[in-house]
Amino acid sequence: MDMSVEEHARQLGWVPKEEFRGPEGQWKDAETFVRDGEQILPVVRANNKKLVAELSETKSQVLELKKLVEAGNDSLKAFEEFHQQSLADALERQRKELTAEMRAARENGDVDLEENLRDQIDEVRQQQRDLKNKPAKTEVKTETKPADTAPQVDPEFLMWNTQNPWFGKDKKLTAFANGMATTMRQDPENSHLVGRAFYDAVAQQVKAAFPDDFPEAPSHDKMEGARGPSRRSGGRSYNDLPADAKAACDRFGQRLAGPGRAYKDLDAWRTQYAKEFFGE
Q1: What is the DSSP string of 43-55?
Q2: Backbone torsion region of residue 13, taken as left when φ is above 0, otherwise alpha when ψ lies between -120 and 50, otherwise beta
Q3: At what angle do helices 243-256 and 30-107 cross, to 10 degrees?
Q4: What is the pLDDT of residues 225-277, one digit of tens each?
Q5: Nearest Cα residue to 252 out of 87, 81, 128
Q6: Rg, C-alpha atoms of the chain
Q7: What pTM did the predictor assign?
Protein backbone atom coordinates (compact mmCIF):
# COMPACT_ATOMS: atom_id res chain seq x y z
CA MET A 1 0.00 0.00 0.00
CA ASP A 2 1.22 3.48 -0.84
CA MET A 3 2.60 4.84 2.44
CA SER A 4 1.70 8.42 1.52
CA VAL A 5 -1.98 7.48 1.43
CA GLU A 6 -1.75 5.75 4.80
CA GLU A 7 0.12 8.66 6.35
CA HIS A 8 -2.43 11.07 5.00
CA ALA A 9 -5.21 8.86 6.34
CA ARG A 10 -3.57 8.76 9.77
CA GLN A 11 -3.46 12.56 9.76
CA LEU A 12 -7.20 12.51 9.26
CA GLY A 13 -7.74 10.09 12.16
CA TRP A 14 -7.53 6.72 10.39
CA VAL A 15 -6.06 3.68 12.21
CA PRO A 16 -5.18 0.19 11.01
CA LYS A 17 -7.78 -2.51 11.52
CA GLU A 18 -5.92 -4.06 14.43
CA GLU A 19 -6.05 -0.74 16.25
CA PHE A 20 -9.65 0.06 15.38
CA ARG A 21 -11.98 0.13 18.40
CA GLY A 22 -15.19 1.09 16.64
CA PRO A 23 -18.23 -1.07 15.75
CA GLU A 24 -17.56 -4.11 13.61
CA GLY A 25 -18.03 -3.38 9.93
CA GLN A 26 -17.32 0.35 10.12
CA TRP A 27 -13.57 0.18 9.62
CA LYS A 28 -12.33 1.47 6.26
CA ASP A 29 -9.06 1.04 4.51
CA ALA A 30 -6.83 4.12 4.23
CA GLU A 31 -7.69 4.88 0.61
CA THR A 32 -11.48 4.72 1.24
CA PHE A 33 -11.11 6.70 4.43
CA VAL A 34 -9.22 9.47 2.60
CA ARG A 35 -11.67 9.48 -0.32
CA ASP A 36 -14.70 9.73 1.97
CA GLY A 37 -12.95 12.37 4.05
CA GLU A 38 -12.30 14.52 1.01
CA GLN A 39 -16.01 14.43 0.23
CA ILE A 40 -17.24 15.01 3.78
CA LEU A 41 -14.71 17.54 5.09
CA PRO A 42 -15.80 20.43 2.81
CA VAL A 43 -19.35 20.01 4.07
CA VAL A 44 -18.14 19.88 7.66
CA ARG A 45 -15.98 22.95 7.14
CA ALA A 46 -18.90 24.84 5.57
CA ASN A 47 -21.20 23.87 8.42
CA ASN A 48 -18.56 24.81 10.95
CA LYS A 49 -18.05 28.19 9.30
CA LYS A 50 -21.81 28.76 9.37
CA LEU A 51 -22.02 27.79 13.02
CA VAL A 52 -19.15 30.11 13.92
CA ALA A 53 -20.87 32.98 12.11
CA GLU A 54 -24.19 32.26 13.85
CA LEU A 55 -22.44 32.03 17.22
CA SER A 56 -20.74 35.36 16.62
CA GLU A 57 -24.05 36.96 15.67
CA THR A 58 -25.74 35.47 18.74
CA LYS A 59 -22.99 36.82 21.00
CA SER A 60 -23.42 40.22 19.39
CA GLN A 61 -27.19 40.11 19.96
CA VAL A 62 -26.74 39.02 23.57
CA LEU A 63 -24.27 41.85 24.14
CA GLU A 64 -26.67 44.37 22.60
CA LEU A 65 -29.55 43.01 24.68
CA LYS A 66 -27.39 43.26 27.78
CA LYS A 67 -26.65 46.89 26.97
CA LEU A 68 -30.36 47.62 26.52
CA VAL A 69 -31.23 45.94 29.83
CA GLU A 70 -28.49 47.87 31.61
CA ALA A 71 -29.71 51.08 30.00
CA GLY A 72 -33.28 50.34 31.08
CA ASN A 73 -32.21 49.61 34.65
CA ASP A 74 -30.14 52.79 34.77
CA SER A 75 -33.09 54.73 33.36
CA LEU A 76 -35.38 53.43 36.11
CA LYS A 77 -32.78 54.34 38.72
CA ALA A 78 -32.44 57.81 37.20
CA PHE A 79 -36.21 58.24 37.33
CA GLU A 80 -36.19 57.41 41.02
CA GLU A 81 -33.31 59.81 41.67
CA PHE A 82 -35.03 62.53 39.64
CA HIS A 83 -38.29 62.27 41.58
CA GLN A 84 -36.42 62.10 44.87
CA GLN A 85 -34.51 65.27 44.02
CA SER A 86 -37.62 67.03 42.74
CA LEU A 87 -39.52 66.13 45.89
CA ALA A 88 -36.61 67.31 48.03
CA ASP A 89 -36.60 70.64 46.19
CA ALA A 90 -40.35 71.03 46.62
CA LEU A 91 -40.12 70.32 50.36
CA GLU A 92 -37.27 72.79 50.80
CA ARG A 93 -39.24 75.43 48.91
CA GLN A 94 -42.24 74.76 51.13
CA ARG A 95 -40.09 75.01 54.27
CA LYS A 96 -38.70 78.39 53.23
CA GLU A 97 -42.17 79.72 52.46
CA LEU A 98 -43.50 78.54 55.82
CA THR A 99 -40.52 80.06 57.60
CA ALA A 100 -41.16 83.41 55.94
CA GLU A 101 -44.83 83.21 56.90
CA MET A 102 -43.92 82.35 60.50
CA ARG A 103 -41.61 85.36 60.75
CA ALA A 104 -44.36 87.60 59.42
CA ALA A 105 -46.81 86.15 61.95
CA ARG A 106 -44.31 86.79 64.75
CA GLU A 107 -43.83 90.40 63.65
CA ASN A 108 -47.59 90.84 63.57
CA GLY A 109 -47.97 89.34 67.02
CA ASP A 110 -50.19 86.51 65.77
CA VAL A 111 -49.12 83.83 68.23
CA ASP A 112 -51.67 81.22 67.12
CA LEU A 113 -50.66 81.46 63.47
CA GLU A 114 -46.99 81.39 64.41
CA GLU A 115 -47.46 78.17 66.39
CA ASN A 116 -49.54 76.66 63.59
CA LEU A 117 -46.83 77.46 61.05
CA ARG A 118 -44.12 76.14 63.39
CA ASP A 119 -45.93 72.80 63.56
CA GLN A 120 -46.14 72.70 59.78
CA ILE A 121 -42.42 73.48 59.48
CA ASP A 122 -41.64 70.64 61.89
CA GLU A 123 -43.75 68.31 59.76
CA VAL A 124 -41.95 69.36 56.57
CA ARG A 125 -38.58 68.86 58.26
CA GLN A 126 -39.66 65.41 59.34
CA GLN A 127 -40.61 64.64 55.75
CA GLN A 128 -37.20 65.89 54.64
CA ARG A 129 -35.49 63.57 57.12
CA ASP A 130 -37.65 60.65 56.02
CA LEU A 131 -36.82 61.36 52.40
CA LYS A 132 -33.10 61.59 53.13
CA ASN A 133 -33.11 58.30 55.06
CA LYS A 134 -35.45 56.49 52.68
CA PRO A 135 -33.70 53.45 51.11
CA ALA A 136 -33.61 53.13 47.35
CA LYS A 137 -36.43 51.06 45.86
CA THR A 138 -33.87 48.85 44.15
CA GLU A 139 -32.51 47.71 47.52
CA VAL A 140 -33.80 44.41 48.84
CA LYS A 141 -35.07 44.58 52.40
CA THR A 142 -33.79 41.65 54.40
CA GLU A 143 -35.91 42.37 57.45
CA THR A 144 -38.91 44.39 58.51
CA LYS A 145 -38.53 46.44 61.65
CA PRO A 146 -41.72 46.77 63.72
CA ALA A 147 -40.59 50.23 64.84
CA ASP A 148 -40.34 51.46 61.26
CA THR A 149 -43.60 53.39 61.41
CA ALA A 150 -42.34 56.92 60.67
CA PRO A 151 -44.52 58.76 58.14
CA GLN A 152 -43.12 58.44 54.64
CA VAL A 153 -43.10 61.22 52.06
CA ASP A 154 -45.86 60.76 49.51
CA PRO A 155 -44.28 60.97 46.03
CA GLU A 156 -47.69 61.99 44.63
CA PHE A 157 -47.10 65.40 46.23
CA LEU A 158 -44.49 66.11 43.57
CA MET A 159 -46.86 65.54 40.67
CA TRP A 160 -49.61 67.50 42.43
CA ASN A 161 -47.21 70.41 43.03
CA THR A 162 -46.16 70.51 39.37
CA GLN A 163 -49.84 70.79 38.41
CA ASN A 164 -50.50 73.37 41.13
CA PRO A 165 -47.49 75.67 40.72
CA TRP A 166 -49.10 78.35 42.90
CA PHE A 167 -48.20 76.26 45.94
CA GLY A 168 -44.84 77.41 47.25
CA LYS A 169 -44.84 80.52 45.04
CA ASP A 170 -47.91 82.50 46.07
CA LYS A 171 -47.50 83.26 49.81
CA LYS A 172 -51.17 83.93 50.44
CA LEU A 173 -52.43 80.77 48.74
CA THR A 174 -49.64 78.63 50.20
CA ALA A 175 -50.29 79.80 53.76
CA PHE A 176 -54.02 79.17 53.39
CA ALA A 177 -53.37 75.72 51.88
CA ASN A 178 -51.05 74.74 54.74
CA GLY A 179 -53.56 75.90 57.34
CA MET A 180 -56.40 74.13 55.56
CA ALA A 181 -54.32 70.94 55.29
CA THR A 182 -53.72 70.94 59.04
CA THR A 183 -57.41 71.51 59.74
CA MET A 184 -58.49 68.77 57.34
CA ARG A 185 -56.04 66.25 58.81
CA GLN A 186 -57.53 66.83 62.24
CA ASP A 187 -61.06 66.10 61.00
CA PRO A 188 -61.90 62.35 61.25
CA GLU A 189 -64.32 62.70 58.34
CA ASN A 190 -61.32 63.22 56.07
CA SER A 191 -59.54 60.04 57.15
CA HIS A 192 -60.32 58.46 53.78
CA LEU A 193 -58.42 61.19 51.94
CA VAL A 194 -54.83 60.13 51.38
CA GLY A 195 -52.14 60.92 48.85
CA ARG A 196 -53.26 62.71 45.72
CA ALA A 197 -56.91 62.73 46.82
CA PHE A 198 -55.99 64.73 49.93
CA TYR A 199 -53.87 67.23 47.97
CA ASP A 200 -56.66 67.72 45.44
CA ALA A 201 -59.15 68.30 48.26
CA VAL A 202 -56.90 70.98 49.73
CA ALA A 203 -56.56 72.61 46.31
CA GLN A 204 -60.35 72.67 45.94
CA GLN A 205 -60.68 74.50 49.26
CA VAL A 206 -58.06 77.05 48.19
CA LYS A 207 -59.75 77.65 44.84
CA ALA A 208 -63.13 78.00 46.53
CA ALA A 209 -61.73 80.58 48.97
CA PHE A 210 -59.87 82.57 46.31
CA PRO A 211 -61.79 82.11 43.04
CA ASP A 212 -60.35 85.31 41.55
CA ASP A 213 -56.86 83.80 41.65
CA PHE A 214 -57.92 80.82 39.53
CA PRO A 215 -59.34 81.59 36.07
CA GLU A 216 -61.97 79.07 35.08
CA ALA A 217 -60.20 76.04 33.62
CA PRO A 218 -61.75 73.47 31.25
CA SER A 219 -62.80 70.13 32.68
CA HIS A 220 -60.58 67.10 32.38
CA ASP A 221 -62.62 65.73 29.48
CA LYS A 222 -62.46 69.02 27.63
CA MET A 223 -58.74 69.29 28.29
CA GLU A 224 -58.21 65.91 26.67
CA GLY A 225 -59.73 67.26 23.49
CA ALA A 226 -57.84 70.53 23.79
CA ARG A 227 -54.44 68.90 23.87
CA GLY A 228 -54.03 69.26 20.16
CA PRO A 229 -51.76 71.49 18.09
CA SER A 230 -53.38 74.71 19.33
CA ARG A 231 -52.58 73.84 22.96
CA ARG A 232 -49.03 72.80 22.24
CA SER A 233 -48.31 75.82 20.07
CA GLY A 234 -49.11 78.18 22.95
CA GLY A 235 -47.45 76.12 25.68
CA ARG A 236 -44.08 76.77 27.22
CA SER A 237 -41.14 74.60 26.27
CA TYR A 238 -37.65 73.65 27.40
CA ASN A 239 -36.35 77.01 26.19
CA ASP A 240 -38.63 78.75 28.70
CA LEU A 241 -37.21 76.88 31.67
CA PRO A 242 -35.02 78.75 34.17
CA ALA A 243 -31.32 77.95 34.05
CA ASP A 244 -31.32 75.65 37.10
CA ALA A 245 -34.28 73.67 35.74
CA LYS A 246 -32.54 73.26 32.38
CA ALA A 247 -29.44 71.98 34.14
CA ALA A 248 -31.49 69.46 36.15
CA CYS A 249 -33.37 68.37 33.03
CA ASP A 250 -30.19 67.76 31.04
CA ARG A 251 -28.40 66.08 33.92
CA PHE A 252 -31.07 63.38 34.16
CA GLY A 253 -31.66 63.40 30.41
CA GLN A 254 -28.29 61.75 29.87
CA ARG A 255 -29.65 58.67 31.64
CA LEU A 256 -33.32 58.85 30.70
CA ALA A 257 -33.03 59.31 26.94
CA GLY A 258 -31.66 56.90 24.35
CA PRO A 259 -31.96 53.27 23.22
CA GLY A 260 -33.54 51.06 25.87
CA ARG A 261 -34.31 54.01 28.12
CA ALA A 262 -37.53 55.76 29.15
CA TYR A 263 -37.46 58.33 26.33
CA LYS A 264 -36.30 57.73 22.78
CA ASP A 265 -34.18 60.89 22.65
CA LEU A 266 -33.26 64.03 24.59
CA ASP A 267 -35.92 66.15 22.86
CA ALA A 268 -38.69 63.81 24.02
CA TRP A 269 -37.44 63.99 27.60
CA ARG A 270 -37.10 67.80 27.49
CA THR A 271 -40.65 68.12 26.19
CA GLN A 272 -42.03 65.97 29.03
CA TYR A 273 -39.92 67.74 31.64
CA ALA A 274 -41.14 71.18 30.54
CA LYS A 275 -44.73 69.93 30.46
CA GLU A 276 -44.54 68.75 34.08
CA PHE A 277 -42.53 71.77 35.23
CA PHE A 278 -45.10 74.26 33.92
CA GLY A 279 -48.04 72.12 35.01
CA GLU A 280 -49.32 71.62 31.47
Answers
A1: HHHHHHHHHHHHH
A2: left
A3: 160
A4: 333 333 343 578 889 888 888 888 888 777 777 776 777 888 888 888 888 77
A5: 81
A6: 35
A7: 0.36
